[in-house]
Design brief:
Blueprint: E1 8-9, H1 12-23, E2 33-35, E3 39-42, H2 55-70, H3 78-88, H4 98-108, E4 112-122, E5 125-134, E6 139-148, H5 153-163, E7 188-196, H6 204-217, E8 223-230, E9 238-244, H7 247-256, H8 265-276, E10 284-290, H9 301-312, E11 316-319, H10 327-339, E12 347-355, E13 360-366, E14 369-374, H11 380-384, E15 394-395
Parallel strand pairs: 2-4, 3-4, 7-8, 7-10, 10-11
Antiparallel strand pairs: 1-12, 4-5, 5-6, 8-9, 12-13, 13-14, 14-15
Amino acid sequence: MPTQLRKFKFRAIPLVLIFCASVFPLKASSSGILVLPFLIQGNPEKAGLSDVAQLPEHMQQAAHFLLPTLRSYPLQNLESTRSSLETAGWSSGETLDQRLADRICIAARVDYLVAGSAQFIEASQTFIKSSVYSCREHKIAASAREAGSVAQLQSLMRKALLASTPFLPAAQNAVDASPGQHADQRPLDLAIILDYSGSMIADIPSILRSLTAIHGALPSGSRLGVVAMNGSSVGGNIEILPFTTEWTATLETLYRKKAGGSNNVAALESALSIVNQYRDWQARRMLMIFTTVGSGERRMTGVESQLRRLQSSGIQLRLFPVLNQDYSQRAEWQRLMRVLSLPSAELVYGREILFADGQSGFMVLKSNRFYHTTGSQDISGLIQRDRLDMNVLRDIE
């Protein structure tokens, strides 16, 4: 990445970190590794990073995602980790000493703790450190520190994690299935619940571009229907766009809509209730949900009940992570995906990355690896439908 790029409109790192935890949830374990939120030092804003307050959790989620691509060892899931840290009395930003580490080990019943730190001086000076504490030996088993630019953040973290865990077995590389194998050629009725609150502004264009490409990849006769949750500042009402084979007209309507205000759990429950009452299903049935709605620390039991009802009626469900979900919202969506046995979305639509000098490209997550493109290709929908030619991508490292 050229060092003369003065400052990112930094969507790339939040994309990577948010998608990491949401796409690859892991099961709880009575042994294994616990990843702590990172200790953040220096001046992240000077390095071009946004969402500074959430960086400790974002980087924790990234490390939690990257470790299974490097080492074959069980991980405690993030929801259980949060509970264990509360039990041990750990506070955000607290330096890990032996007494605190031992309390966390007891509360979590794990073998190792990964304590990471990130120091940001400026965009070209970034330092990532990973220290692994052995709960059995009551000491740091290994540490590693990597230096580079903020554009290399993922690569630095990967290298630090790998170097600080030499005593763990290497992960076996998964083999991707060939794109398009065994595709069902029956028409699909695709229902979308789309949140039009202000927090979705950064996501809506990518989602709509993806839907455009999805349409081109689906069998003839497939239909699109949308339940739009308008934010409070634009009426706060639910708008229904009925099933139609005229995808272009529906998408043009969605492009013209303005996002703003906020939505809540009640709005999402209303949208799900509308889908539950649909009587116009004609083909294979699928529901995709894109929203930042959450309920703080509480579980969305009403939403879960509605989703179970949809599942029992034969509707395939897909929940997708979005840019501005906070920690509790992501944790709740992860929980819902687990309890509903929803498949993990191995392929996630790309998000455009913009640079100060006008360059553009796409950050792409495919299975366990990240890639990027240059130029102005809109590959979002190709990724979503697993129709992407991997030869056009460059390994992020």
